[in-house]
From TrEMBL:
PANTHER family: COBW-RELATED, ZINC CHAPERONE YEIR. CDD domains: CobW-like. It comes from the Bacteria. It comes from Neisseria leonii. Residues 219-305 form the CobW C-terminal domain. This is GTP-binding protein.
Length: 306
């Protein structure tokens, strides 16, 4: 079968350098690869389609100021046309906000594209000064921008204090789900090799944030591919039974696809909390406890799938 087109989204808040990041990748493009670019016609900085076309890269501009206005039929039709006409190796999509970024991923995973498209590494560019600012961190839009990506790019690091960078590193390392890569750059310059980083965690893995120690805690993570829905009632029963299955439970977090939506669940002080999230890479569950049967946990999770 022919290779699928790898699609990369570049998201981020206003003024952080998304356009510059995309230009930096285009400047490094291998001559052997064929790329196409999708941008919004009126971005905060904007990309001159004529200039990019001079580099031999077809550019599709979607009118309306932001891709979120076109994450339905217009977006899908634009992607479909580019795939048919150009048959590119990669498609780069500059996203000007998060709500549409998650919507674009959903559109790319629709049945019409399942034979032609692979959602590859998704990038979000952030300014560390904003990232550590509670006023930004509390905004759902900003949380979703950070949550959707595989690669978190800290730009404008030359404008940050040592304390701001240290706080950024600490908070970025604690993100859930964890990022495939966290990088610090100047002038939003990305490395071409980051396009091909591994974005899928193993089906079963040990938590990287919990080194082996004498405290006696166990850790385990489980992943399930996007496209597999969980049954809400079965998942609820799993949550209810978990304290009995995991002795000395201290942490349990999960992101699950349920009826086409994505829900983040967190166990704190014996209670579960739930929120919708923009994460789209996979469903996953992680726990830390004194003792548990990982095989039984995995069996129960599989049983909760639709």
């Amino acid at each position: 079968m022919p290779a699928k087109t790898k699609v990369h989204l570049i998201s981020g808040f206003l003024g952080v350098g998304k356009t510059t990041a995309l230009k930096s990748l285009i400047a490094q493009k291998r001559p052997s690869e064929k790329w196409v670019v999708v941008v919004n016609e009126f971005g905060e900085v904007g990309i001159d389609g004529a200039v990019l076309t001079q580099d031999g890269i077809p550019v599709a501009e979607i009118a309306g100021g932001c891709l979120c206005c076109a994450a339905g039929a217009d977006m899908g039709d634009t992607v479909a046309a580019l795939l048919k006409e150009q048959r590119p190796d990669r498609m780069m999509i500059e996203a000007s906000g998060l709500a549409h970024a998650a919507g674009v991923i959903d559109e790319l995973r629709a049945k019409r594209f399942e034979q032609d498209v692979e959602v590859a590494a998704v990038f979000t560019v952030v300014d560390p000064r904003q990232f550590v600012n509670p006023d930004y961190a509390r905004q759902p839009l900003y949380q979703d921008q950070v949550g959707v990506c595989d690669v978190l790019v800290a730009s404008k690091t030359d404008l940050c204090t040592a304390e701001q960078l240290a706080e950024f590193r600490e908070k970025a390392a604690a993100l859930f789900p964890p990022k495939a890569k966290i990088v610090e750059v100047q002038n939003a310059r990305l490395s071409l090799e980051w396009l091909d980083i591994a974005v899928a965690e193993k089906p079963r893995y040990r938590l990287k944030t919990l080194p082996d120690s004498s405290m006696g805690y166990q850790s385990q993570g489980f992943t399930f591919p996007a496209g597999r829905d969980f049954d809400g009632e079965k998942l609820t029963r799993f949550f209810d039974d978990l304290p009995q299955m995991a002795e000395g439970l201290v942490r349990a977090k999960g992101v699950f696809q349920i009826l086409g939506t994505w829900v983040w669940l967190n166990w704190v002080d014996g209670q579960w909390g739930a929120n919708q999230v923009a994460w789209r890479r996979d469903s996953r569950f992680e726990l830390i406890a004194k003792a548990f049967d990982a095989d039984e946990i995995e069996k129960r999770l599989h049983a909760a799938l639709e």
